[in-house]
Amino acid sequence: MRNFSIISLGCPKNLTDSENFFSIFKQAGYNFTDNVNIAEILLINTCGFIRDAQEESINTILEHILLKNNKLKKLIVTGCLVKRFQEELKQEIPEVDLWLDLKDFDGLQKLLNTHFKIEREILTLPHYAYLRVSDGCNNRCSYCAIPDIRGELHSISIENLLEEAKILALKGVKELIVNAQDTSNYGKDLHGKSMLVELLTKLDNLKLFKWIRLLYLHPAHLTKEMVFEFSKIKSLLPYFDIPLQHINDNILKNMNRKITKQETLSLLNFIRETIPQAAIRTTFITGFPGETKKDYIELKNFIQEFRFTRLGVFSYSQEKGTPAYNFNNQVNKQTAQNRKDRLMAIQQKISEEIMSSFIDQELEVIIDRKANEESFLYEGRSYLDAPEIDGTIFITHGNAKPGDIVTVQITDSWEYDLVGKIINNVTNT
Ligand code: SF4
What we know:
The chain is of the alpha/beta class. The chain is built from 14 helices and 18 strands. Strands 2-1-3-4-5 form a five-stranded parallel sheet, with helices on both faces. Strands 14-15-16-18-17 form a five-stranded mixed barrel. Strands 6-9-10 form a three-stranded parallel sheet, covered by helices on one side. Helix 4 packs parallel to helix 5 (about 115-120). The site of iron/sulfur cluster has 10 residues, from helix 6.
């Protein structure tokens, strides 16, 4: 979380404006500090009423410019002085990063949600980036501390997200990864219903991204209608990341997941019928309080039968402050770990079989980087692989550069990864 600080000069009206700016920083996830020496963003709210106040404002700006040699990354100046002398100030003090109009609260909000956020978050390779569409979560899963830490669901408007997406495209992003704590619920706080389909359709209509990938779909809020609409969105990859956490009805109920085994199966089967090539990724938790051997075997059988393309298993972690922390029948940690290890071993075999079924097939691959190992030229990913989470495609032949999207013929497979050769030129849009 980034630190911000505010220096408020002048009258009480200015102080009220500073308080509004303060709330906007907080909503955008910034942390207030009254120590300007450790602030990464400093907003100076100036006064330009009389000559003395103007001088005081200018001196304050000049004094704080020096902090840019240290922690300070962005110096923003707003207030009456800016309203009166913006053009002259821009010429005279170029070290200021942004001159914000008097009371331009929307301007600050937009900036924090777009430009600054992007500068903060493009830590990925330049050809893919994450578009965080909301923060917080209303679900209150009984094992999870996130709603207490990050608060209730707070979605960013479609308008702001489209602007952010356009900037990302200008920076060379080809794969846009839409994420949030619960993407299925995106926009519910603003519109009373999920706006995910609308958002994805508008992102697709921009025609700026070859690939759009969706993460963290809560199954209870992912409807069949949404899945059907997804199937019509051209740039949306057939990749479904749906954390299920368990399949036993009692455990699901105690986890407060608001979905049953039957509803889960119906949804998953619908995805496979509607989008046969869909890569379905999920995560499960072993050792949740009350998980009996029978419950674990039910989960194991389900994993063996459904054959997820990608699967992660975590052993339950007893988080203080969550309802499940106080549940009586906590499972022994070693048992939870053993169950996790066994499920991962089962999945390894399934994954190996699924990966080998891709041999001789052609896949579109985004090139991430030159390969680290000598026997390969490049490393990339197909629709099956979210970065840092899933597998890699190792390329043995062909010419490409990072960020290119090429067609690759698969020649070999490992447990989670594939090997292939580039068989045509770049297919970038
Ligand atoms: S597990 Fe996910 S959906 Fe459940 S409360 Fe935590 S963040 Fe929300």
